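Recap from last week: sequence in, structure out.
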Amino acid sequence: MKRINLSKLGPGLLFAGAAIGVSHLVQSTRAGADYGWGLLWALLLINLFKYPFFQYGPRYAQATGETLLDGYFKLGKGYLWAYFFVNLGTMFTIQSAVTVVTAGLASNLFGITDDIIIWSVVITLFCSIILILGRYQWLDKFVKVIMVCLAISSVLAVGVAFLNNESPPFKQVFPEGSGLLFLIAFLGWMPAPLDISIWHSIWTLEKNKTQHRKSSISESLFDFNVGYVATTFLALCFVGLGSLVMFGTGMEFSNQGGAFAGQLIQLYTSSLGDAAYGLIAVAAFSTMLSTTITTLDASPRAMSKTIQLLLKKEKSYYLPWLIILGLGTGCIFVFLLSEMGQLVQIATVLSFITAPLYAFLNFRLVISDQMPLKYKPKSGLRLLSVTSLIFLTSFTLFYLFNL
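Predicted structure tokens:
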């Protein structure tokens, strides 16, 4: 068995840190609470079918020394403009969504004030300062500690829940009506939006810079696989918690950040006992904080690179985009907080609808002449890619025709 050396891991855990946020703590838990184990098929299929396209991020970066954005630009300037506008339309909503959940957990944990807006602004400023001062190095170390804490607490909670609660049947269901919209949102952000593959390619090159050497393809893919398996496993844990503790009880999750945070922590403490409240509250808050800081770092990096390519400039636009993202997120807190649920739903659905585009572009890049022959995916991975692309496209068309 291969021994995992945390010092050699990085981008894969950052991927997990970005993924294990709203999609896991919120949507996976809600899926279990509303449908029991009924959406297990959806969780496993979407993680399988998105796998190759996420993997192509670090694969392409290590093989070519370029980000996926460089590749999109070479395929056609229009693809990069499309990414720019889609990302511009979703980055503020995504950042607001993860920050509000983090703020709710902070309010529940620290109790200084229950004003979600104040907490959201404080958290955004705190994360911005860390990124400005420490950049990738601090982010890398911070997320590793968080992931280990979350994994241990989640496994303990689900294990005890299995012992203390009767498990719902494993009968699989296909939601209809309003449930279809939840399913699409669930698939859109499970385990994460596909454009995170772009972030991963950027983090991969950044890791090479900070460690002053280029990782091998095998090291990079191992790092990715560790992060991906962790996101899938923890998604199962959160579905299990919702299923074992809340399914069939008539309880419903609140749409308010603070109330939802209390319910989420209660899921853990009802399994592990009230004595574990502090540990669980810190773990949940830390998890969402890691998601908040990774998304706050990634979007400005991606937008900076996009602008560099479109304008053919070498200047970094990271800091200006970090400020723009922070201010835009703050405006949503102040003026659109009551519409947050609808904004998140729009963002998750848009992530699902655009998934086939990112999947197509990533697959096209790794089989193109830009990719060295020895690093191109083998026949098995190519077959999975084609099958996955057909699934994502078909499901998207099915949804659009059923609007």
